[in-house]
Design a protein that fits this description.
The chain is α/β, with parallel strands linked by helices. The protein has twelve helices and twelve strands. It has helices at residues 55-62, 90-99, 108-111, 118-129, 134-147, 153-157, 166-178, 196-213, 224-230, 248-254, 258-265, 329-340; strands at residues 11-24, 27-40, 44-48, 71-80, 83-84, 101-104, 184-188, 216-221, 233-238, 241-247, 318-321, 324-326. It has an eight-stranded mixed β-sheet, with helices on both faces. A four-stranded antiparallel β-sheet has the order 2-1-4-5, with helices on one face. A hairpin with a 2-residue loop joins β4 and β5 (83-84). α4 crosses α5, α5 packs across α7 (166-178) and α7 packs parallel to α8 (196-213). It is globular, with a radius of gyration of 21 Å. Bound molecules: iron/sulfur cluster. Iron/sulfur cluster is lined by residues 257-258, 298, 300-301, 304, 306-307, 311, 315, 328-330.
Length: 341
């Protein structure tokens, strides 16, 4: 669906000025700073950045699963279908998790319980959120295994996670995440441990399920290729900040933040001629900053070839259109240059 044709009532999730802090070694560390975005019904939002940029912490904060202590949601709202998940009771958030918002974790082997059968684990999720009998829950579990295209689901229901391939375990995780038909599905690096063929199959499956159920998907990844495959819109994160947001084509073909531009340059292209001598892939110099040291100004400045004196202050968000913004002083300079011209 075209983003511009969506109605306000299509908006399922509103995240506003979300801030997460951790106490580490007696210091308060800002892990997420001022994260805001919205998600419409049937939309896929890609959240991209290097490890340690705050992508997975954003997912945990949306589910209100930030480990506390040492962490806490210091400020902000996570409004799902009109209900602020930051404020609801512990009992209510346990009900919401799994039934309204659920998550596919990175590594199915460590997320699935090795001592219970696949059927038990899916059926338990179903029974936790509705009043199905044990036999009904197993019937529903079988339907879910069919939906995620696991062959011989009757047999697989009775098997343990170690008896399944990596791709099948990830399908089981998807089945568990979808068991109660959530409005929002968070997929945190769902294909990291899988080869490219299985990765493509998992993405196709997620798209199919989204078409049938209208589920919103938040895809968390460090891989722009995965985002290009799945997402309608993209948020780029760096050091706990949202530094660029836009529609997939706006960001992939017109990135404005130097970090996003660097990420795109690092994407490998398919080599069609094996004899072709190719330049080594460029890399973004330096590393993600240590948040423990505290940051002043633009967090990307030590790695940015455009850094200027003004970058010692944290940049504002510059609005470039409908759900399109960039957090970089260069945008302001650009505007000034254009105005003067
Ligand atoms: Fe580079 Fe300055 Fe923009 Fe940060 S604000 S990305 S340092 S130009």
């Amino acid at each position: 669906m075209n983003n511009n044709t969506r109605n306000p009532e299509d908006t399922v999730l509103i995240v506003e000025n979300l801030c997460v802090d951790f106490y580490v070694k007696g210091k308060l560390v800002h892990i997420l700073s001022d994260i805001s975005f919205t998600l419409d019904r049937g939309e896929t939002l890609g959240i991209i950045g290097e490890s340690g940029c705050g992508k997975s912490m954003t997912a945990l904060a949306l589910m209100r699963m930030v480990p506390s202590p040492p962490g806490m949601i210091r400020a902000g709202r996570v409004v799902l279908n009109g209900e602020d998940l930051v404020k609801v009771s512990e009992k209510r958030i346990r009900d919401v998790r799994g039934s309204k918002i659920s998550m596919i974790f990175q590594e199915p082997m460590t997320s699935l319980n090795p001592v219970y059968t696949v059927g038990n684990q899916i059926a338990e999720t179903i029974r936790r959120h509705n009043n199905s009998s044990r036999s009904q829950a197993f019937e529903e579990a079988m339907d879910l295994l069919r939906m995620v295209q696991i062959p011989a689901p009757e047999r697989r229901l009775r098997e343990y996670p170690h008896q399944l391939s990596g791709g099948m375990r990830q399908r089981v995780m998807i089945a568990i995440a979808l068991a109660c038909e959530p409005d929002v599905l968070i997929a945190d690096e769902p294909t990291t441990a899988l080869d490219v063929t299985v990765q493509a199959q998992i993405f196709d499956l997620l798209k199919e399920i989204q078409d049938i159920r209208g589920t919103c998907i938040i895809l968390i990844t460090h891989d722009f290729g995965a985002v290009a495959e799945m997402a309608d819109r993209v948020i780029v994160m760096y050091a706990g900040h949202k530094i660029e947001e836009g529609k997939l084509d706006e960001v992939s073909s017109g990135a404005r933040h130097p970090y996003t531009q660097g990420l795109l340059r690092c994407m490998p292209e398919i080599q069609t001629d094996p004899k072709e001598n190719r330049e080594p892939l460029p890399e973004i110099p330096g590393t993600v900053p240590d948040l423990l040291r505290g940051l002043e100004g633009c967090p990307f400045a030590p790695r940015c070839s455009f850094a200027m004196p003004k970058c010692q202050q944290l940049p504002d968000y510059f609005d470039l259109g409908y759900k399109r913004s960039v957090k970089c002083w260069l945008i302001q300079e650009d505007v000034k240059v254009k105005k003067q011209a």
